[in-house]
UniProtKB/TrEMBL annotation:
Catalytic residue positions: C390 (nucleophile)
Binding positions (S-adenosyl-L-methionine): C268, A269, G270, P271, G272, G273, K274, E293, D320, D337
Protein name (Swiss-Prot/TrEMBL): rRNA cytosine-C5-methyltransferase
Signal peptide: none
Keyword set, alphabetical order: Methyltransferase, RNA-binding, S-adenosyl-L-methionine, Transferase
Highest taxon above the source species: Bacteria
Similarity section: Belongs to the class I-like SAM-binding methyltransferase superfamily. RsmB/NOP family.
Occurrences of domain SAM-dependent MTase RsmB/NOP-type (ranges): 164-438
SUPFAM superfamilies (UniProt xref): NusB-like, S-adenosyl-L-methionine-dependent methyltransferases
Length: 438
Protein backbone atom coordinates (compact mmCIF):
# COMPACT_ATOMS: atom_id res chain seq x y z
CA UNK A 1 0.00 0.00 0.00
CA UNK A 2 1.43 3.35 -0.98
CA UNK A 3 2.41 5.70 1.86
CA UNK A 4 0.08 8.65 2.24
CA UNK A 5 1.60 11.90 0.98
CA UNK A 6 2.06 14.46 3.80
CA UNK A 7 -0.07 17.56 3.71
CA UNK A 8 1.62 20.80 2.67
CA UNK A 9 2.83 22.99 5.54
CA UNK A 10 1.06 26.28 6.11
CA UNK A 11 3.45 29.00 4.95
CA UNK A 12 2.61 31.52 7.68
CA UNK A 13 3.29 28.97 10.41
CA UNK A 14 6.50 27.84 8.73
CA UNK A 15 7.63 31.47 8.55
CA UNK A 16 6.84 31.96 12.25
CA UNK A 17 8.89 28.87 13.09
CA UNK A 18 11.80 30.25 11.07
CA UNK A 19 11.68 33.42 13.18
CA UNK A 20 11.69 31.43 16.43
CA UNK A 21 14.63 29.39 15.17
CA UNK A 22 16.63 32.50 14.23
CA UNK A 23 15.95 34.08 17.62
CA UNK A 24 16.95 30.91 19.49
CA UNK A 25 19.91 29.74 17.42
CA UNK A 26 21.38 32.97 16.04
CA UNK A 27 20.24 35.33 18.84
CA UNK A 28 18.51 37.38 16.15
CA UNK A 29 16.04 40.14 16.95
CA UNK A 30 12.53 39.16 15.93
CA UNK A 31 11.60 42.58 14.56
CA UNK A 32 14.69 42.59 12.32
CA UNK A 33 14.54 39.02 11.05
CA UNK A 34 10.77 38.99 10.51
CA UNK A 35 10.72 41.15 7.33
CA UNK A 36 13.42 38.94 5.80
CA UNK A 37 11.47 35.78 6.59
CA UNK A 38 8.23 37.23 5.23
CA UNK A 39 9.97 38.07 1.95
CA UNK A 40 11.55 34.63 1.79
CA UNK A 41 8.13 32.95 2.04
CA UNK A 42 6.39 35.53 -0.14
CA UNK A 43 3.90 36.49 2.58
CA UNK A 44 1.81 39.64 2.49
CA UNK A 45 -1.47 40.88 3.92
CA UNK A 46 -3.29 38.50 6.25
CA UNK A 47 -0.68 35.75 5.93
CA UNK A 48 2.09 38.16 6.94
CA UNK A 49 -0.02 39.40 9.86
CA UNK A 50 -0.64 35.82 10.99
CA UNK A 51 3.06 34.95 10.86
CA UNK A 52 3.90 38.11 12.79
CA UNK A 53 1.37 37.41 15.55
CA UNK A 54 2.43 33.77 15.84
CA UNK A 55 6.14 34.53 16.10
CA UNK A 56 5.85 37.55 18.39
CA UNK A 57 3.27 35.94 20.64
CA UNK A 58 5.13 32.65 21.03
CA UNK A 59 8.38 34.44 21.89
CA UNK A 60 6.75 36.95 24.22
CA UNK A 61 4.59 34.46 26.10
CA UNK A 62 6.80 31.43 26.47
CA UNK A 63 7.29 32.25 30.16
CA UNK A 64 3.69 31.06 30.54
CA UNK A 65 3.51 28.58 27.69
CA UNK A 66 6.54 26.52 28.75
CA UNK A 67 5.08 25.59 32.18
CA UNK A 68 1.81 24.69 30.43
CA UNK A 69 3.65 22.48 27.93
CA UNK A 70 5.74 20.88 30.69
CA UNK A 71 2.59 20.07 32.67
CA UNK A 72 1.44 17.92 29.73
CA UNK A 73 4.71 16.00 29.26
CA UNK A 74 5.49 12.57 30.63
CA UNK A 75 9.22 13.15 30.00
CA UNK A 76 10.67 16.56 30.91
CA UNK A 77 13.17 16.92 28.06
CA UNK A 78 12.18 18.18 24.62
CA UNK A 79 14.13 18.94 21.49
CA UNK A 80 14.33 22.74 21.17
CA UNK A 81 12.83 22.50 17.67
CA UNK A 82 9.84 20.57 19.01
CA UNK A 83 9.34 23.02 21.86
CA UNK A 84 9.24 25.88 19.34
CA UNK A 85 6.45 24.12 17.43
CA UNK A 86 4.57 23.51 20.69
CA UNK A 87 4.90 27.18 21.66
CA UNK A 88 3.36 28.18 18.36
CA UNK A 89 0.54 25.69 18.81
CA UNK A 90 -0.07 26.76 22.40
CA UNK A 91 -0.29 30.40 21.38
CA UNK A 92 -2.97 29.53 18.84
CA UNK A 93 -4.93 27.46 21.36
CA UNK A 94 -4.79 29.86 24.31
CA UNK A 95 -4.40 33.35 22.87
CA UNK A 96 -5.79 33.37 19.33
CA UNK A 97 -9.14 32.65 17.70
CA UNK A 98 -7.84 29.61 15.86
CA UNK A 99 -10.06 26.50 16.03
CA UNK A 100 -8.49 23.77 18.14
CA UNK A 101 -8.41 21.23 15.30
CA UNK A 102 -6.61 23.71 13.01
CA UNK A 103 -4.03 24.67 15.64
CA UNK A 104 -3.28 21.02 16.39
CA UNK A 105 -3.25 19.61 12.86
CA UNK A 106 -1.08 22.42 11.44
CA UNK A 107 1.37 21.99 14.31
CA UNK A 108 1.62 18.26 13.63
CA UNK A 109 2.22 18.98 9.94
CA UNK A 110 4.86 21.56 10.85
CA UNK A 111 6.87 19.30 13.16
CA UNK A 112 6.65 16.44 10.68
CA UNK A 113 8.02 18.63 7.88
CA UNK A 114 10.79 20.28 9.88
CA UNK A 115 11.87 17.70 12.49
CA UNK A 116 10.49 14.39 11.28
CA UNK A 117 7.64 11.96 11.87
CA UNK A 118 8.95 10.86 15.28
CA UNK A 119 7.70 13.76 17.43
CA UNK A 120 4.39 14.22 15.59
CA UNK A 121 2.49 11.97 18.01
CA UNK A 122 3.88 13.81 21.02
CA UNK A 123 2.93 17.21 19.55
CA UNK A 124 -0.57 15.96 18.86
CA UNK A 125 -1.00 14.57 22.40
CA UNK A 126 0.41 17.63 24.20
CA UNK A 127 -1.66 20.13 22.25
CA UNK A 128 -4.83 18.06 22.74
CA UNK A 129 -4.19 18.14 26.49
CA UNK A 130 -3.62 21.91 26.40
CA UNK A 131 -6.83 22.47 24.44
CA UNK A 132 -8.94 20.97 27.23
CA UNK A 133 -8.45 24.03 29.46
CA UNK A 134 -8.79 27.76 28.98
CA UNK A 135 -5.98 30.26 29.38
CA UNK A 136 -7.31 31.36 32.79
CA UNK A 137 -7.51 27.75 33.98
CA UNK A 138 -3.93 27.09 32.92
CA UNK A 139 -2.72 30.26 34.64
CA UNK A 140 -4.33 29.10 37.88
CA UNK A 141 -2.66 25.69 37.57
CA UNK A 142 0.93 26.66 36.66
CA UNK A 143 1.49 30.00 38.44
CA UNK A 144 2.13 30.71 42.14
CA UNK A 145 -0.81 31.74 44.31
CA UNK A 146 -1.69 35.38 43.64
CA UNK A 147 -2.28 36.14 47.33
CA UNK A 148 0.81 34.45 48.74
CA UNK A 149 3.19 35.57 45.96
CA UNK A 150 1.63 38.32 43.82
CA UNK A 151 4.81 39.11 41.85
CA UNK A 152 5.51 35.43 41.22
CA UNK A 153 1.95 34.94 40.01
CA UNK A 154 2.17 37.90 37.62
CA UNK A 155 5.59 36.79 36.37
CA UNK A 156 4.06 33.57 35.05
CA UNK A 157 0.61 34.88 34.15
CA UNK A 158 2.02 37.83 32.17
CA UNK A 159 5.17 36.02 31.04
CA UNK A 160 7.87 38.29 32.46
CA UNK A 161 11.01 37.25 34.35
CA UNK A 162 10.43 37.64 38.09
CA UNK A 163 13.28 40.12 38.51
CA UNK A 164 11.79 42.32 35.78
CA UNK A 165 8.41 42.30 37.54
CA UNK A 166 10.10 43.38 40.77
CA UNK A 167 11.95 46.27 39.09
CA UNK A 168 8.85 47.48 37.25
CA UNK A 169 6.88 47.45 40.50
CA UNK A 170 9.62 49.54 42.12
CA UNK A 171 9.50 52.00 39.22
CA UNK A 172 5.72 52.34 39.50
CA UNK A 173 5.98 52.87 43.24
CA UNK A 174 3.21 50.38 44.05
CA UNK A 175 1.46 47.28 42.69
CA UNK A 176 -1.82 48.98 41.79
CA UNK A 177 -0.93 49.38 38.10
CA UNK A 178 1.52 46.50 37.79
CA UNK A 179 -0.82 44.05 36.10
CA UNK A 180 -1.97 46.73 33.65
CA UNK A 181 1.66 47.55 32.76
CA UNK A 182 2.61 43.90 32.23
CA UNK A 183 -0.49 43.36 30.09
CA UNK A 184 0.44 46.42 28.00
CA UNK A 185 3.91 44.94 27.48
CA UNK A 186 2.21 41.94 25.89
CA UNK A 187 -0.01 43.94 23.53
CA UNK A 188 1.18 44.50 19.98
CA UNK A 189 1.98 48.23 19.61
CA UNK A 190 0.47 50.36 16.88
CA UNK A 191 2.77 51.56 14.10
CA UNK A 192 3.53 55.24 14.73
CA UNK A 193 5.07 57.50 12.10
CA UNK A 194 6.89 60.81 12.51
CA UNK A 195 6.72 63.58 9.92
CA UNK A 196 10.19 65.10 9.99
CA UNK A 197 9.64 68.87 10.04
CA UNK A 198 10.66 70.68 6.90
CA UNK A 199 10.53 67.41 4.94
CA UNK A 200 7.02 66.06 5.48
CA UNK A 201 3.80 67.13 7.16
CA UNK A 202 1.31 65.40 9.38
CA UNK A 203 -1.34 66.17 6.76
CA UNK A 204 0.64 64.18 4.18
CA UNK A 205 0.78 61.17 6.51
CA UNK A 206 -2.92 61.50 7.26
CA UNK A 207 -3.63 60.87 3.58
CA UNK A 208 -2.17 57.38 4.12
CA UNK A 209 -4.90 56.75 6.69
CA UNK A 210 -2.96 57.89 9.73
CA UNK A 211 -4.49 59.45 12.85
CA UNK A 212 -2.67 62.18 14.75
CA UNK A 213 -1.01 61.28 18.05
CA UNK A 214 -2.15 62.97 21.24
CA UNK A 215 1.09 64.62 22.36
CA UNK A 216 3.65 64.83 19.55
CA UNK A 217 2.78 67.42 16.90
CA UNK A 218 4.65 65.34 14.33
CA UNK A 219 3.19 61.90 15.10
CA UNK A 220 0.62 59.82 13.23
CA UNK A 221 -0.66 56.34 14.12
CA UNK A 222 -0.98 54.08 11.09
CA UNK A 223 -3.99 51.73 11.35
CA UNK A 224 -2.35 48.97 9.30
CA UNK A 225 -0.37 48.11 6.22
CA UNK A 226 3.30 48.36 5.44
CA UNK A 227 4.76 51.71 6.56
CA UNK A 228 7.45 51.38 3.87
CA UNK A 229 4.66 51.75 1.30
CA UNK A 230 4.05 55.34 2.49
CA UNK A 231 6.03 57.54 0.06
CA UNK A 232 7.34 59.90 2.75
CA UNK A 233 8.71 56.94 4.72
CA UNK A 234 10.27 55.32 1.66
CA UNK A 235 11.99 58.60 0.83
CA UNK A 236 13.29 59.24 4.37
CA UNK A 237 11.15 62.34 4.88
CA UNK A 238 9.20 60.50 7.56
CA UNK A 239 9.98 57.45 9.65
CA UNK A 240 8.61 54.83 12.01
CA UNK A 241 9.06 56.18 15.54
CA UNK A 242 7.21 55.60 18.80
CA UNK A 243 5.54 58.73 20.15
CA UNK A 244 7.59 58.44 23.33
CA UNK A 245 10.82 58.64 21.35
CA UNK A 246 9.45 61.66 19.52
CA UNK A 247 8.73 63.37 22.83
CA UNK A 248 12.29 62.74 24.02
CA UNK A 249 13.70 64.33 20.86
CA UNK A 250 11.35 67.28 21.26
CA UNK A 251 12.41 67.71 24.90
CA UNK A 252 15.95 68.28 23.64
CA UNK A 253 14.97 70.55 20.76
CA UNK A 254 12.31 72.61 22.55
CA UNK A 255 13.94 73.24 25.94
CA UNK A 256 14.30 77.02 26.48
CA UNK A 257 17.84 78.25 25.94
CA UNK A 258 19.49 81.64 26.25
CA UNK A 259 22.32 82.71 23.99
CA UNK A 260 23.93 80.78 21.16
CA UNK A 261 21.91 77.88 19.71
CA UNK A 262 23.96 76.64 16.77
CA UNK A 263 25.72 73.41 17.79
CA UNK A 264 23.75 70.33 18.76
CA UNK A 265 25.00 66.85 19.72
CA UNK A 266 23.29 63.44 19.75
CA UNK A 267 25.88 61.53 21.79
CA UNK A 268 24.58 57.97 21.25
CA UNK A 269 22.74 58.41 17.96
CA UNK A 270 22.28 54.86 16.67
CA UNK A 271 20.14 53.64 15.01
CA UNK A 272 19.13 57.19 14.07
CA UNK A 273 15.42 57.75 14.67
CA UNK A 274 15.86 60.50 17.23
CA UNK A 275 18.81 61.94 15.28
CA UNK A 276 16.62 62.33 12.20
CA UNK A 277 13.94 64.24 14.12
CA UNK A 278 16.44 66.35 16.06
CA UNK A 279 18.40 67.00 12.86
CA UNK A 280 15.24 68.21 11.11
CA UNK A 281 14.56 70.61 13.99
CA UNK A 282 18.17 71.82 13.89
CA UNK A 283 18.02 72.41 10.13
CA UNK A 284 14.95 74.61 10.53
CA UNK A 285 16.82 76.82 13.03
CA UNK A 286 20.10 77.01 11.16
CA UNK A 287 21.88 74.77 13.67
CA UNK A 288 24.17 71.80 12.95
CA UNK A 289 23.71 68.41 14.61
CA UNK A 290 26.65 66.10 15.25
CA UNK A 291 25.20 62.58 15.33
CA UNK A 292 27.78 60.58 17.25
CA UNK A 293 27.74 56.79 17.47
CA UNK A 294 30.36 54.42 18.81
CA UNK A 295 29.74 51.42 16.54
CA UNK A 296 30.49 51.97 12.82
CA UNK A 297 27.62 49.75 11.61
CA UNK A 298 25.17 51.71 13.75
CA UNK A 299 26.67 54.96 12.48
CA UNK A 300 25.81 53.71 8.99
CA UNK A 301 22.20 53.25 10.14
CA UNK A 302 22.20 56.83 11.39
CA UNK A 303 23.49 58.06 8.02
CA UNK A 304 20.64 56.21 6.32
CA UNK A 305 18.07 57.64 8.72
CA UNK A 306 19.16 61.26 8.08
CA UNK A 307 19.68 60.87 4.33
CA UNK A 308 16.82 63.19 3.38
CA UNK A 309 18.10 66.07 5.51
CA UNK A 310 20.31 68.82 4.05
CA UNK A 311 23.90 67.57 4.08
CA UNK A 312 25.21 70.56 6.00
CA UNK A 313 22.69 70.16 8.85
CA UNK A 314 23.84 66.75 10.17
CA UNK A 315 27.34 65.32 10.54
CA UNK A 316 27.53 61.61 11.38
CA UNK A 317 30.63 60.71 13.40
CA UNK A 318 31.84 57.34 14.75
CA UNK A 319 33.74 57.44 18.03
CA UNK A 320 33.78 56.59 21.73
CA UNK A 321 31.37 58.76 23.68
CA UNK A 322 33.33 58.16 26.88
CA UNK A 323 36.42 59.69 25.23
CA UNK A 324 35.10 62.54 23.09
CA UNK A 325 37.22 64.13 20.40
CA UNK A 326 35.77 67.61 20.87
CA UNK A 327 36.67 70.40 23.30
CA UNK A 328 34.56 70.62 26.48
CA UNK A 329 31.76 73.16 26.26
CA UNK A 330 31.46 72.86 22.46
CA UNK A 331 27.71 72.30 22.18
CA UNK A 332 24.57 74.25 23.02
CA UNK A 333 22.23 71.27 23.19
CA UNK A 334 23.07 67.61 23.88
CA UNK A 335 20.85 64.52 23.71
CA UNK A 336 22.07 61.43 25.53
CA UNK A 337 19.79 58.51 24.66
CA UNK A 338 21.87 56.22 26.83
CA UNK A 339 22.46 52.50 26.29
CA UNK A 340 20.03 50.79 28.65
CA UNK A 341 18.25 47.54 29.45
CA UNK A 342 15.41 48.35 27.05
CA UNK A 343 12.84 47.16 29.58
CA UNK A 344 10.57 50.01 28.52
CA UNK A 345 10.14 48.60 25.02
CA UNK A 346 9.24 44.99 25.80
CA UNK A 347 6.12 45.18 23.63
CA UNK A 348 8.32 45.89 20.58
CA UNK A 349 11.17 43.49 21.35
CA UNK A 350 9.59 40.24 22.48
CA UNK A 351 12.87 38.42 23.02
CA UNK A 352 14.62 41.10 25.08
CA UNK A 353 12.90 40.20 28.36
CA UNK A 354 14.50 36.75 28.18
CA UNK A 355 17.99 37.97 27.24
CA UNK A 356 18.59 40.64 29.84
CA UNK A 357 19.85 39.84 33.34
CA UNK A 358 20.05 41.85 36.58
CA UNK A 359 23.82 41.97 36.07
CA UNK A 360 23.28 43.76 32.75
CA UNK A 361 21.56 46.59 34.58
CA UNK A 362 24.45 46.91 37.03
CA UNK A 363 26.96 47.22 34.19
CA UNK A 364 24.82 49.67 32.24
CA UNK A 365 24.36 52.00 35.22
CA UNK A 366 28.10 52.62 35.40
CA UNK A 367 28.25 53.39 31.69
CA UNK A 368 25.19 55.65 31.91
CA UNK A 369 26.82 57.78 34.60
CA UNK A 370 30.05 58.09 32.62
CA UNK A 371 28.17 59.14 29.48
CA UNK A 372 26.03 61.65 31.37
CA UNK A 373 29.19 63.25 32.73
CA UNK A 374 30.53 63.39 29.15
CA UNK A 375 27.31 65.00 27.93
CA UNK A 376 27.43 67.65 30.66
CA UNK A 377 31.10 68.36 29.99
CA UNK A 378 30.31 68.70 26.28
CA UNK A 379 27.68 71.43 26.71
CA UNK A 380 28.51 75.08 27.29
CA UNK A 381 27.48 76.88 30.49
CA UNK A 382 23.80 77.72 30.06
CA UNK A 383 23.35 74.86 27.60
CA UNK A 384 20.86 71.99 27.72
CA UNK A 385 21.38 68.23 28.20
CA UNK A 386 18.55 65.71 27.93
CA UNK A 387 19.30 62.31 29.47
CA UNK A 388 16.93 59.61 28.23
CA UNK A 389 16.47 55.85 28.49
CA UNK A 390 14.01 53.39 27.02
CA UNK A 391 13.69 51.97 30.52
CA UNK A 392 11.65 52.91 33.57
CA UNK A 393 13.99 51.08 35.96
CA UNK A 394 14.88 53.39 38.86
CA UNK A 395 18.57 52.42 38.79
CA UNK A 396 18.83 53.53 35.14
CA UNK A 397 16.68 56.67 35.38
CA UNK A 398 16.26 58.87 38.43
CA UNK A 399 19.11 57.19 40.31
CA UNK A 400 21.60 57.94 37.51
CA UNK A 401 20.52 61.58 37.29
CA UNK A 402 20.52 62.05 41.06
CA UNK A 403 23.94 60.43 41.44
CA UNK A 404 25.52 62.68 38.80
CA UNK A 405 23.81 65.81 40.15
CA UNK A 406 24.97 65.05 43.69
CA UNK A 407 28.65 65.01 42.73
CA UNK A 408 28.63 67.94 40.31
CA UNK A 409 28.35 71.52 41.44
CA UNK A 410 27.61 72.96 38.02
CA UNK A 411 24.34 71.31 36.99
CA UNK A 412 20.66 71.92 37.68
CA UNK A 413 17.64 69.84 36.73
CA UNK A 414 14.88 71.63 34.81
CA UNK A 415 12.38 68.84 34.20
CA UNK A 416 11.89 65.10 34.07
CA UNK A 417 9.13 62.80 32.85
CA UNK A 418 8.34 59.10 32.72
CA UNK A 419 6.00 57.64 30.09
CA UNK A 420 4.22 54.29 30.40
CA UNK A 421 2.63 51.89 27.88
CA UNK A 422 -0.52 51.39 29.96
CA UNK A 423 -1.01 55.10 30.69
CA UNK A 424 0.34 56.87 27.62
CA UNK A 425 0.27 54.24 24.87
CA UNK A 426 4.01 54.74 24.34
CA UNK A 427 7.17 52.89 25.23
CA UNK A 428 8.24 53.50 28.84
CA UNK A 429 10.59 56.37 28.01
CA UNK A 430 12.31 58.42 30.71
CA UNK A 431 13.83 61.84 30.12
CA UNK A 432 15.46 64.43 32.39
CA UNK A 433 16.37 67.90 31.13
CA UNK A 434 19.50 69.37 32.76
CA UNK A 435 21.40 72.61 32.34
CA UNK A 436 24.98 73.63 33.01
CA UNK A 437 25.01 76.55 35.40
CA UNK A 438 26.22 79.73 33.70
Amino acid sequence: MAERRPRPVDRARRAALDVLTAVRVDEAYANLVLPQVLRKHGLTGRDAALATELASGAIRMHGLYDPVIDACLTKPRLQPEVRDVLRLGTHQLLSMRVPDHAAISTSVDLVRATVGRGPSGLVNAVLRSISRRSLAEWVDQVSPDATADPHGHLAVARSHPRWVVDLLAEALGNDDELDALLAADNAAPAVTLVARPGLATVEELETAGGVRTARSPYGVVLPGGDPAAVPAVAEGRAGVQDEGSQLVALAMGDAPLEGRDERWLDLCAGPGGKAALVGALAAQRGAVLVAHERQPHRAALVASAVRALPGESVKVVAGDGARPAWTPGTFDRVLLDAPCSGLGALRRRPESRWRRTPEDVDVLVGLQQVLLDTALDSVRPGGIVVYATCSPVVAETTAVVDAVLSRRGDTDEIDRFQLWPHRDGTDAMFAATLTRRA
